[in-house]
TrEMBL record, chains A, B:
Lineage: Bacteria, Bacillati, Bacillota, Clostridia, Lachnospirales
Pfam families reported in the protein's UniProt record: PFK
Enzyme class: transferase
Binding site for Mg(2+): 113
Superkingdom as given in the UniProt entry: Bacteria
Keyword Lyase among record annotations: no
Biological role stated in the UniProt entry: Catalyzes the phosphorylation of D-fructose 6-phosphate, the first committing step of glycolysis. Uses inorganic phosphate (PPi) as phosphoryl donor instead of ATP like common ATP-dependent phosphofructokinases (ATP-PFKs), which renders the reaction reversible, and can thus function both in glycolysis and gluconeogenesis. Consistently, PPi-PFK can replace the enzymes of both the forward (ATP-PFK) and reverse (fructose-bisphosphatase (FBPase)) reactions.
Name of the featured protein: Pyrophosphate--fructose 6-phosphate 1-phosphotransferase
Activity-regulation annotation: Non-allosteric.
Record-linked HAMAP family: Phosphofructokinase_II_B2
InterPro entries documented for this protein: ATP_PFK, PFKA, Phosphofructokinase_dom, PKF_sf, PPi-PFK
GO biological process: fructose 6-phosphate metabolic process
GO cellular component annotations of the record: cytoplasm
Organism expressing this protein natively: Robinsoniella peoriensis
Length: 409, 409
């Protein structure tokens, strides 16, 4: 007899992580699971016995639709890394005690690289100790840096936001640039992978030239060559827009933003907290070249903008959530659902499943040959890869002029 | 016999200034004007003989619809202040020489306070020198600080963007705030008037608590009282979101952002360029209280986000453009079209017309009694005023997943 499912969300929010949650919930109900529990704030909250019976909160199909349109993590997220099994068995015993008490068959965790590490450790522990629960991961990250999956849910919507907003910023600059030069530096998320920054090129089309320069973190950034590029561009046009990754680094490995500040805040996963690359470069150009400059940081807006989400992305996020429940129900464990691209044009994709031992902590970067030779743009191959992922709209349900969300309260 | 119309755009871009341009164009054609010229980059470009025949670029009704959905100034904008008539008659003689050569009857200028100053001077000069052209202004500014009009086109869409994005940022913070405190400071445009900053309260509703604190530039900002508020809030909740105007000032008149930097860039109208208020306050809280903080600047995004424009706003912008042509055609000069609110609920408005001599350079601020007693929020009266202006959507025409704009090339 089938028992219960539990699902959690982890890592940085996206516009569609809740669509995956909706997919988990719906498929679990459809497949006849008894209850669907939600961990509050992922495995960290779960360790504090914080979980809810989702059926008490997702009451009908309209709620499912609202959930698909709600950004950030409905259940709350966490950034919590489980210790190695040999380091602290007590934590694992506690987790499995709760799982057994709640009669959980399937444990679904929606997250990025660090979350797949959680799936790996829990499935390993279950096998080591002869327990029957199945552990399956659902990919999620705006950064698109997970290996083995063609792309990750969350990326498409962030890319659509970035393409749209970059185009609006470019138009803004053009409107104002009569007889004066304006250089706008847009800072985009992506510590090591330039997928999101490259998406700024989506603004390019019949009605827009796109950004003039795009700098991904995959290649070293040369400040003086950059200034030369700007000096040369400014002779030809008045408004220049540059998209840079927050994570661009000098050849010696230092982050560009470190040139202006001492950044020593390190998060729980050992990542350095970054900010200020756009402002630094804007100030540098103002000082060195003397024109008006602006730094625009898309910041947290780019990962939460469900009001301009991609329909493809929302639907795929929903699909991988459902596929994870199906996989666990059919006996898979220690796996992550992936998206396989069957065809570029017409775009078609299908879910697959991979062993998380092959996935965790392996960052997928933009291939060198998808970046232009001089390192200042992305190629048409890059755009052919990204474009299918931003197609279609999934408009918010507007109440009194503002998007309505489904919230846990 | 009717001759020609010329129209220009001036000042900071908005999401709907082109909808006013579309309204001018359509009404001018409908009323039988021969040609509709567009100044490129406002009066500044006009002085350089830069203008186009708009009918060559706006070819059909689809183009009009695209124009209504295109942010920033289609014709290009300028920030150019005409000298007083007695200071430099040559400039005025040049302008009227071109106007007469182009057989202009009606001169329509879309802009804010500074642009109405242009309408005033040109209409004065025409009267002084016995010339027949009519000069009418069309209000435009996201800041909503124009006197005599109930509100200005551009404000509603910016307010809708701010309400929507604030809600998404609040959700983002809630998702991440387990067992740790996160204070997010959102910086919103508005040098002296807090209309836009107050619009952050639109995020408040059944599914969202809204920002915890809202600071408008109308009242002096007390840094130590602010820190006390944060300290007190952080005892009750983990994620705190504060909306501040870029223009908040200390009791002694210094801008808060000046506390961290020396800002000495002054624009052509004598306005001090501001930036960094959110970052300053976020760093201050991190240092004084020790929690994680984030500064989010809506920056230029808030004035160009036509992808989330308000339908009421786009339609009103179109309407005031048309009303200006009608007024000039019927003999009005030295006037600005205004929007009169006929009723709040159901919301109804109509155009009116006022003498620009009464309007120019008179900033409309948020009334004291629309700000809470302790100065940290807006009242329900404020929200009742703003809400009708953000109603309805005017979705972009999406091409390949990204909004299509109409551009002059």
């Amino acid at each position: 007899m089938k028992r219960n499912v539990i699902v959690g969300q982890s890592g940085g929010p996206t516009a569609v992580i809740n669509s995956s949650l909706a997919g988990v919930y719906k498929t679990a109900r459809d497949r006849g699971f008894h209850k669907v529990f939600g961990m509050l704030h992922g495995i960290q909250g779960f360790l504090d016995e914080k979980y809810i019976d989702l059926s008490k909160y997702i009451k009908n199909d309209l709620d499912i639709e609202l959930l698909k349109r709600t950004p950030s993590a409905y259940l709350g997220s966490c950034r919590y890394k489980l210790p190695e099994i040999h380091e602290d068995k007590d934590i694992y015993e506690k987790i499995f005690e709760i799982l057994n008490r709640l009669e959980i068959d399937s444990f679904i965790y929606i997250g990025g690289n660090d979350s797949m590490d959680t799936i790996k450790k829990l499935s390993d522990y279950a096998i080591l100790t002869g327990q029957s629960q199945k552990f399956v991961g659902v990919p999620k990250t705006i950064d698109n840096d997970l290996a083995l999956t063609d792309h990750t849910p969350g990326f498409g919507s962030a890319a659509k936001y970035i393409g749209t907003s970059t185009k609006e910023v470019i138009r803004d600059g053009l409107g104002l640039s009569y007889k004066k030069d304006i250089v706008t530096i847009i800072e985009i998320m992506g510590r090591n992978a330039g997928w999101l920054t490259g998406a700024a090129a989506l603004s390019k089309g019949e009605d827009c030239d796109g950004p003039d320069l795009i700098y991904l973190p995959e290649l070293p950034f040369d400040v003086s060559k950059f200034l030369d590029k700007i000096r040369s561009l400014i002779k030809k046009k008045h408004s220049i827009v540059v998209a840079v990754s927050e994570g661009i680094k000098l050849a010696d490995g230092r982050y560009v933003c470190e040139l202006s500040q001492n950044s020593d805040y390190i998060d729980a996963f050992g990542h350095k907290q970054l900010s200020g690359t756009a402002d630094y470069l804007a100030n540098l150009i103002a000082a060195e070249i003397g024109c008006k400059t602006r730094g625009v940081e898309f910041s947290t807006l780019q990962r939460s903008a469900s009001h301009v989400a991609s329909r493809v992305d929302i639907n795929e996020a929903f699909m991988v959530g459902g596929a994870a429940v199906k996989a666990a129900d059919e006996g898979d464990t220690g796996k992550m659902v992936v998206i396989d691209r069957v065809s570029d044009d017409p775009y078609q994709c299908a879910t697959g499943i991979y062993d998380v031992h092959k996935i965790a902590n392996d960052e997928k970067l933009v291939p060198r040959d998808w970046i232009s030779k001089d390192g200042t743009y992305v190629t048409n191959e890059f755009l052919a890869y990204v474009k299918p992922l931003v197609q279609g709209d999934y408009p918010p349900v507007m109440v009194d002029g503002i998007p309505r969300h489904l919230v846990y309260k």
